[in-house]
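Entry for 1-deoxynojirimycin complex. Fields follow.
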Amino acid sequence: MLSSSRVALLGAALTGLSLVCSVRGAVGGPSNYSFPDGFMFGVATAAYQIEGAWNEDGKGESMWDTFLHKHPDYTPDRSNADVAADSYHKYMDDVAMIKDLGVEYYRLSISWPRLLPNGTDNNISKAGVRYYRKLIKELQSANITPVVTLFHWDLPTPLMDLGGWANPIMVNYFRDYARVAFNLFGDVVKIWTTMNEPHQHCYNGYGSDYFAPAIKSHGVGEYLCIHYILLAHAAAYHLYDQEFRPNQKGKVGITLDAFWAKPKNNSKPEDIEAAERYLQMHVGLFAHPIYSKEGDYPDIARKRVDSISLHEGYTRSRLPTFSPEEVNALRGSSDFFGLNHYTTFLMSPSSWEKTWLIPSLDSDTGVKLEQDAKWIKPGAEWFSIYPQGFRKLINWVTNQYGKEIPIIITENGMSDFGGINDYLRVSYYNEYMAQMLMAIYEDGCNVQGYFAWTLMDDFEWKDGYVSKFGLYYVDFDSPEKTRTPKQSAINYREIVRTRRINFDFIKKPSPAQFNKL
Ligand code: NOJ
């Protein structure tokens, strides 16, 4: 029996489906295009969000462990990821699920404090090494290629205590950690991403208190974090280049996140300009130093933060400066563009919003973000569905940084409040992937891979276990953390199998059929 709220939710999902379909302008059947030969299909996860076993076998604490133990009220359900989906013990099940989806790639992250309990390379945990070796071996026997992220936000607490990414010494510590990882796993791991979504990490964790470490050093700490995380990325890239690439012959990139920035009113030049400014200040801040021909921070960011800082009475700009050697080290320091995309915001210029801290990246950017009330909002408060934004964003990245750099969609997926009959997620994936195919075939964008976020329901940071992104449902109340495929898993498997989207494959039940579910 379904509860009335559940029925309401499913009803909303049905309405949602038709709205999303009408956006695409087609109602069913197979997609016009099939995925190119060699296109990489994968699923992604992150260590802290799934592994659990937070203090087992000598694992050190990450700053998320420490923060959530100190602040149990941070999440709406007072949860943390001490156990999460228990992948530390259930990794064989995870691999079986990935295999069942038919994808050939799995993007996972290494927990830095599981490998180096103090964060430093003088103490390598044997159990940590064993765990990742076992997991990678299991993947290999299932013919699944690992794509490994070194830093997906779970910084070792002893390094956080030194100021985390605001401290320049982190560049060295990250290089040391990367060396350990390349040494230990580089024989089998051939695709690495150094950092996951440094924008979200620095903006929410250093610039505000939305994410751990909740430092709220807005306008100052957030730029230090950005600056040193970029330099740490470049250090790891060059380390690989010099010491490992000749033998290991792998690829190293970075994963950046981006909302699509849609001008609130397309006929207003100031909204168009605001949207472009937002993209430069949020994506360009990371991408320009790495992927542009000139290197360094985008001009607009340099000028705005310099002049606003001066105006505020600072002796020097709150945005640190790269030396010419650092500009060179960063330029070209990525073999691919890892892109995470979820949603779109409407942009218009603003000199002040009450949610902005002063100074901050927000107030330096001077752009107001809203979402259209007509867009479906299926879960997390920041999340609305606007598939067309995906194609636009892929085009923007291509136009900015060129067709030569391969784009890998390292995350894309939908937030809801749970359940296995996730018809709206089916539709989200169909529609977003269709937009990506158009970017590839109609616009000539060089997208070479796609990773669905995420394999299974997990710990969703600020939302705890309340909002869900999984292709597999996880029963967090069961001791076994039982995993069950959702409709979206079945649909994704079919896309991967046929290398085409079939908009009719998962039929949306009629409301009458829904009531019988
Ligand atoms: C991006 C992050 O990399 C991931 O950890 C998070 O769960 C998803 N966004 C969804 O919010």
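NOTE: The CA atoms of residues 136 and 146 lie 7 Å apart.
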